[in-house]
From TrEMBL:
Listed name of the protein: HAT C-terminal dimerisation domain-containing protein
Stretches for region Disordered: 400-446
Record-linked PANTHER family: ZINC FINGER BED DOMAIN-CONTAINING PROTEIN 4 (PTHR46481)
UniProt GO MF annotations: protein dimerization activity
Length: 553
């Protein structure tokens, strides 16, 4: 009777059943739901209500069949997108799960033909060996091969933190350029400033006050009452995480905003008897705290700007570093605390990026917002554009050779095997050298060329291309910079094909590299939601697939 009322159950291989099963797998991946969700009573009731004829497969089916199939399908789409990119950059970082397993994540970044910046999480693989540069290099080389990242015309830029093992790993893997995460660099410089003894003691006193309000429900209630009376927002005080300098800044900012309510609360007889060892800050402390916030606020803003994944950020490193170093210059009006902080920050920051500084200047020059390079002397600015001109010629030559080889591979005529120019990608971090390409035999002259060729000559193809690149470079260099509100990718999209067809590929290769390894670090929070307390025994392969699907679907 039930069969006649509702019809026969859906066959597992029917189009309708397959569609529902796939949607459940997508639900698991996108919403980070455990495989066991299919056994939950409420979920089964929901599915049964929506489609009574559908039979829900087991959790093992989803973990062993449906999710891997969805991963394979999505991976093919990602690889296809990466194949279309002429240049690719990657970021990498490591993290530890709740199950105390070490993982290393690799993300890829490209700029499409439509000048849209895309980011993909490629893999999150376990790192069972020691975290040495050699072992990490093996993972990087394997990822380059698996995801088909290598390009004949361009190297692969890599962004990591400042750890020494990452230096070794990138060098051993043969990848370049290697950019140290600017957000991590700012963190190290800020931590140096916060480690100044006077600042360290001040933060300790504020931390004790905040911790007291986090422990005492009575104090927290009286604080809320005082905030209402003083017409202040009813916010809780923030306690910092010592390893995150911006949380210390947030703690100070929140404390200063509510210091009157905090002081009134600590003077309350209901609170004072439990806070005998807690003291409010005096006038000098408040002044120092305000100065610290004022000094570090631009660095926090810079970190936020650098974390954008939709616009180029590598071109911001030089302008922001210059701005921060200028703001750390000594001033007669500085207090002793501020002077000590400035010295500590400047000492930590000033000697960084010396190995890739020329390359970073080139990145900045290819961002139309900063192409005037106002912080450089004119001769240094001309030198930057000279290097870019040479590299644009080199990239153009290698691209032409690669295209010719592709045509030959499709059945076109020509010499077999790679030419010398195609063997190595353009070295964006070094001085460009014009490639020597073996030329084919000259074509037979026409009768008109034989008669008038000595009078009317045309430039060789290579000479013509160099001239065009020089013309584009001069036009770009002397152009007016766009506003800081404008998107450099939109500008290149509008001008690349018509105005700068030979220079734009170089800009794409440079600007696709992020300034930070934040894309890899953002995976950590996603991973924490996936490898949670209830799923701490999740297999490493499933961790990889689920993070990949969450980030790329």
């Amino acid at each position: 009777m039930l069969t006649s009322t509702f019809g026969a159950p859906l066959a597992q291989k029917s189009a309708r059943a397959k569609e529902i099963t796939k949607c459940i797998a997508v639900f698991m991946a996108k919403d980070m739901r455990p495989f066991s969700v299919v056994e939950n009573e409420g979920f089964r009731l929901l599915i049964n209500t929506l489609e009574p004829k559908y039979h829900i497969p087991s959790r093992q089916y989803f973990s062993q069949t449906e999710i891997p199939a969805l991963y394979k399908q999505t991976k093919e789409k990602v690889i296809q997108t990466l194949r279309q990119a002429n240049s690719i950059a990657i970021t990498t970082d490591g993290w530890t799960s709740r199950a105390t397993e070490s993982f290393i994540t690799i993300t890829a970044h490209v700029i499409t033909d439509e000048w849209e910046m895309l980011s993909f999480v490629l893999q999150t693989r376990p790192l069972y060996e020691a975290h040495t540069g050699v072992h990490i290099a093996e993972i990087l080389r394997s990822a380059v091969a698996e995801w088909e990242l290598e390009r004949a015309a361009c190297g692969i830029g890599v962004v990591t933190d400042n750890a020494r093992n990452m230096d070794v790993a990138v060098r051993e893997a043969g990848l370049a350029p290697h950019v140290k995460c600017f957000a991590h660099t700012l963190n190290l410089a800020s931590q140096a400033g916060l480690s100044v003894p006077r600042v360290h003691r001040l933060l300790g006193r504020v931390r004790r006050v905040v911790a007291f309000f986090h422990r005492s429900t009575t104090a927290a209630a009286v604080l809320t009452s005082n905030q209402k009376a003083m017409e202040l927002p009813q916010h809780k005080l923030i306690i910092d995480v010592v390893t995150r300098w911006n949380s210390s800044l947030d703690m100070l900012e929140r404390y200063l905003k509510h210091q009157s309510a905090v002081a009134a609360t600590l003077l309350s007889p209901y609170v004072r008897r439990n806070a005998r060892e807690i003291d409010t800050l005096d006038h000098a402390d408040i002044n120092d705290a305000e100065d610290i916030v004022k000094l570090l606020k631009p660095m926090k803003t810079a970190t936020t700007v650098l974390s954008d994944e939709k616009t180029p950020t590598v071109s911001l490193i030089v302008p922001l570093k210059h701005m921060i170093e200028s703001s750390m210059a000594p001033n007669e009006e500085d207090s002793a605390t501020v002077s000590a902080m400035k010295r500590a920050i400047l000492d930590n920051l000033s000697n960084r990026y010396t190995d890739v500084y020329d390359w970073l200047l080139e990145c900045t020059a290819l961002d139309p917002r900063f192409r005037t390079l106002p912080h450089l002397e004119e001769d240094l600015r001309q030198d930057v554009f000279r290097r870019l001109r040479e590299k644009a010629v080199q990239l153009s030559n290698k691209t032409n050779v690669t295209m010719e080889e592709a045509d030959e591979g499709d059945g076109g005529e020509g010499t077999s095997g790679p030419t010398p120019a195609a063997e190595q990608p353009v070295n964006l971090t070094g001085t460009a050298e014009e490639a020597e390409v073996e030329q084919p035999p000259p074509n037979k002259k026409t009768a008109l060329e034989d008669l008038l060729g000595g009078t009317f000559t045309e430039p060789a193809v290579a000479e013509s291309q160099v001239y065009c690149i020089e013309s584009e470079m001069a036009k770009y260099k002397n152009g007016k910079p766009i506003s800081l509100k404008s998107c450099p990718l939109e500008w290149w999209k509008e001008n690349a094909k018509i105005m700068y067809p030979l220079l734009s590929p170089l800009a794409k290769a440079y600007l696709s590299i992020p300034a930070t390894s934040v894309p890899s670090e953002r995976v950590f929070s996603t991973a924490g939601d996936i490898v949670n307390v209830r799923r701490s025994q999740l297999l490493a392969d499933n961790v990889d697939m689920l993070i990949f699907l969450k980030k790329n679907m």
